[in-house]
């Protein structure tokens, strides 16, 4: 596969706010992409991005819970060679709470089944466009469960597990896969989690992604708050999860 880090066409889910918005704006600012499909539930929520970037952003309807919206989007955005599955939901919930099973189901629907739907729909698109890059925004909670975020952690652990398998699947068609595991990042989600006092800027994620893709890394742990988990984890992971590049970028 040949993949240049400049002048690509990307699709970013959940790009109206938070980390997805920062990824979109960084890709455009750094000219990683000439165009970004801003894939959102409410098209009006990206009006200001269209005002700022003109035809470099193309609003597209995607609800990760609605398979038809994803299939339709993949037909429209058939020129993308970077897909960033960023959209996600978070609920504070412990395993023994009365609502834990409903909470688990709801978060799996978006965070886990959503990933599978996006990967399946965009796999042929990426293949047709030379392989490209598939980026999944997982979490530090994919690695370490926090008991009061138990159902969210489980959904993100399952998404990480699937990301590992997608890496192997996608390598057959020359698609590079990156698994991103942020710690607390300042967005609506981290405020809801009660982490605003320690949360770090979203640009650590977007800038980290660019470097990780350039270096052909599979794991990325943006932010400084996660090092006590990511460092020992990577000592283990590099031994059991292939660390060599399986696709050249
Ligand atoms: N912030 C952190 O500290 C942190 C840490 C680790 C990982 N993450 C992960 O980073 C990603 C982005 O999080 P964030 O902090 O930017 O969260 P956020 O500010 O709450 O934004 C979440 C985004 O996901 C979208 N979304 C939610 N449900 C959706 C659905 N069913 N279909 C399509 N889009 C949907 C939201 O759209 P609407 O505006 O329509 O609701 C919004 O754009 C998530 O996957 C999250 O798990 C975040």
Number of helices: 8
State the secondary-structure class.
Answer: alpha/beta
**Poorly predicted residue ranges:** none
Q: Give the overall form.
A: globular
Give me the strand/helix succession.
EHEHEHEHEHEHHEH
Task: Specify the CATH architecture.
Answer: 3-Layer(aba) Sandwich
The CATH first-level class comes to Alpha Beta
CATH fold-level name: Rossmann fold
Kindly give the count of domains. 1
Largest sheet: 7 strands, parallel
Rounded Rg: 17 Å
| Arithmetic mean of pLDDT | 96
- Percent helix: 40-55%
Strand content: 5-15%
What is the CA–CA distance across the termini?
7 Å
Characterize the structure shown.
There is one protein chain. Helix content is 45%, strand content 14%. The chain has 249 residues and is α/β, with parallel strands linked by helices. It has one domain: NAD(P)-binding Rossmann-like Domain (Rossmann fold). Strands 3-2-1-4-5-6-7 form a seven-stranded parallel beta sheet, sandwiched between helices. α2 links the parallel β2 and β3. The termini are close together. The model has no long low-confidence stretch (mean pLDDT 96). The protein binds NADP nicotinamide-adenine-dinucleotide phosphate.
